[in-house]
Design brief:
This protein is α/β, with parallel strands linked by helices. The chain folds into two domains: 155 residues, TIM Barrel (Alpha-Beta Barrel); 122 residues, Beta Barrel (Lyase, Ornithine Decarboxylase, Chain A, domain 1), CATH 2.40.37.20. Helix content is 30%, strand content 25%. α4 crosses α5 and α6 packs across α7. The longest helix is centred in the middle third of the chain and has 25 residues. It starts with 21 loop residues before the first strand and ends in an 8-residue tail after the last strand.
Length: 382
């Protein structure tokens, strides 16, 4: 039998009283990660807006705000509405707001919370402004800038012209620029990640400086992702960073070299429920627990699949059904032994998806199950 070696810091002390499959969060590790990013942002003199879409959990959002975040980032209005119901009231929406129904919801949300809205089309900005002006109010807006990801946003070279075009619209107050430099994730190695992140930051600062030179008062230059957070913000002139995964980390962050396993605060706890042949087995955590996210990152010698089964070196979570996780042996020598009922820990590829799929997190402290926190924004993707 091949000897198993589990990486230092890989395992959480998960009590057997937590039923599987469950998303388990080690509070001490999570709070360490939250405090570390808050200290970094404060040291750089920039605002921190943690992306709450990662967890959609009021208790976690409150911890992030208490640690020094200036506001929460959200992707959809439903997230902000659910978090506002829980008493949180400062948001930046990193997503274009389009359609009468959503504009009306944003206007109602503004009555009980502060929110920066985002646009990347003149039609969208014009409709937003007209609705706000008709209601006798003004919306603070950011221009979404495409710095290379080619998802949403005005091309960085055209961002200043676009900002100048929408700034006079009634009902709007242009506050600045916002981007997600997600393309940096696909760049090879730490150097590739760093260079793409810095390039994005420089594009954002240049566009903001251009707008200021044309007489506009721009005070928000917002960038964001966990892997790029400490690279893009090295550019002077960035005013806000919006990481999300950082509070927990995941296998994607490990493979990209951002953190080690000891900084990963969450696992999906699962159980071996079938083991018919020595080189394959089934877990009770399938796509409804860890999701079908694949990373698209190849690191020689690192396990692939749908997450890292931390306590089973040599076993790969290579296939998912809705409620079945398919394990196969890919290690050296004969397969290590598994037993029916054996509990294992999966480090998800993408922690955001695990929060969404399971809908709640089991909080542990010093090996004790101390709380269950429900993701109240679950399903609020409208």
């Amino acid at each position: 039998m091949a000897e198993q070696t589990i990486s230092a810091g890989g395992l959480l002390d998960i009590p057997d009283s937590i039923e599987t499959p469950s998303l388990v969060v080690d509070r001490a590790r999570m709070e360490h990660n939250i405090a570390d990013m808050a200290a970094y942002a404060a040291g750089r003199g920039i605002g921190l807006a943690p992306h709450a879409k990662t967890h959609r959990t009021p208790e976690i959002a409150r911890l992030q705000m208490a640690a020094g975040a200036e506001m929460l980032c959200i992707a959809k209005l439903g997230e902000a509405e659910a978090l506002a119901d829980a008493g949180l009231d400062r948001f930046v929406m990193a997503y274009p707001i389009v359609g009468d129904a959503k504009i009306a919801r944003a206007r109602r949300l503004m009555e009980r919370a502060s929110i920066l809205l985002s646009v990347d089309s003149f039609a969208g900005a014009e409709a937003l402004g007209a609705s706000m002006a008709a209601a006798g109010t003004v919306a603070d807006v950011l221009v979404i800038v495409d710095t290379g990801y080619h998802r949403c946003g005005v091309d960085a070279g055209e961002a200043a012209d676009f900002g100048l075009a929408i700034a006079p619209l009634p009902g709007l107050r242009l506050r600045g620029l916002i981007t997600h430099e997600g393309h940096a994730y696909s760049k090879p190695g730490e150097e590739g990640l760093h260079d793409a992140s810095v390039d994005a930051g420089e594009l954002m600062v240049a566009a903001a400086d251009d707008l200021r030179a044309r007489g506009l008062d721009i005070d928000v230059v917002s960038v964001g992702s966990s892997a790029t957070a400490r690279h893009t913000t090295a550019v002077d002139g960035i005013t806000q960073v919006r990481p999300g995964i950082y509070a927990f980390n995941d296998y994607g962050q490990v493979l990209r070299g951002v953190v080690g396993l000891d900084r990963c605060a969450a696992r999906v706890a699962a159980t071996v429920v079938s083991h018919v042949e020595s080189d394959r087995a089934i877990l009770d955590a399938g796509s409804k627990s860890v999701s079908h996210d694949r990373l698209g990152i190849h690191v020689p010698g690192a396990p692939g699949g749908y997450g890292l089964v931390v306590d089973l070196p040599g076993w790969e979570l290579y296939q998912l059904s809705e409620e079945h996780g398919w394990l196969r042996w890919t290690g050296d020598g004969p397969p290590s032994e598994l037993t029916i009922g054996q509990r294992v820990q999966i480090l998800p590829n993408h922690i955001c998806s695990a929060f969404h799929m399971l809908g709640q997190s089991e909080i542990i402290e010093d090996g004790e199950h101390v709380a269950t926190w429900v993701a109240t924004g679950r399903g609020e993707s409208r």
